[in-house]
Amino acid sequence: MRPDTKIKRAIASPVLVARKINKLYFAAVGQNDFNTNGVDIFEKEWDNLIILDACRYDLFKQQTHISGNLEKEISRGSSTTEFLAGNFAGRRLHDVVYVTANPQFHRHQDTINCELHNVINVWKDSGWDSENETVLPETVTDQAVEAANEYSNKRLIIHYIQPHYPFLDSGTSFDKGQLDDPDDDSAFWRRIMTGELSVDIDHLWNLYESNLNKALDSTSNLLQELEGKTVITSDHGNMMGDRSFPIPIREWGHPRGVHTPELVEVPWLDCGGKRREIVAEPPAGQTQESIDSVNDRLRNLGYVQ
Fold this sequence. Notes:
This protein is about 35% helix and about 20% strand. The chain has eleven helices and nine strands. It has helices spanning about 5-10, 15-30, 55-65, 80-90, 105, 110, 135-150, 185-195, 200-225, 260-265, 290-300, and strands spanning about 50-55, 70-75, 90-100, 115-120, 155-165, 230-235, 240-245, 250-255, 265-270. Strands 2-9-6-1-5-3-4 form a seven-stranded mixed beta sheet. Strands 7-8 form a two-stranded antiparallel ribbon. Strand 7 (about 240-245) and strand 8 (about 250-255) form a beta hairpin. The longest helix is centred in the C-terminal third of the chain and has 23 residues, at about 200-225. The radius of gyration is 18 Å and the shape is globular. The relative contact order is 0.23. Residues about 180-185 have low confidence and may be disordered.
């Protein structure tokens, strides 16, 4: 976006200036590239790590029906890209297979510079649902089961896109077909924040909860198929008009670099299971997706290009 366009937007929406100041605050206290107060997921014990994208701890605690030991952890990011930078960057993880519905790892793979045994991009053509403009949770489950069978001696990270919008089976249009945005967040949330879009907060919560419930149903099905110790968590939370810090504006979405409790407090549900034998091996052959394909998926999910 051109600098003059950014200036015009800031003048028209002072709340975006306040957001920028809040980001500068967190950067000033040493949380620039990622939230240094967050947990390193690879220092935790698990064989299967299930990530529910943009899932708040409080909502998960309220909605989950999956048994296990639930704790609160602090994420290394308030956005997916920040979470990836804080956990994956510069690492050699030859014992890990990443099954993901989120294209951000692929888009930033050069800067993340992480070697995994394999990455299964569920968001590719075969896994993409054009009607909802996202990856359905049941599709992730199906590909995760295939990966578990093929890579029985590898740690699995399974990244669902829900409860992150687009909202499934909702009949809504404001959350579909997102465009580029200067922040590491979507035009949809920014428009609510600036008052350009008015959506009833209770309606938003219901949509968000519905997306989470669909993800939890698919996750429950996946748990029946997985062997080993399984943990369910999130990459980051989501602001729903909660007050930010230090300037107490009402914040929406999950802007990168804003480390409020609603954004970095995530669930850590230990579902138990006997540990599997894990073996590290050189990376499997991985195909390169076209830049246009990646950008199209990111646009539909509301990410900056």
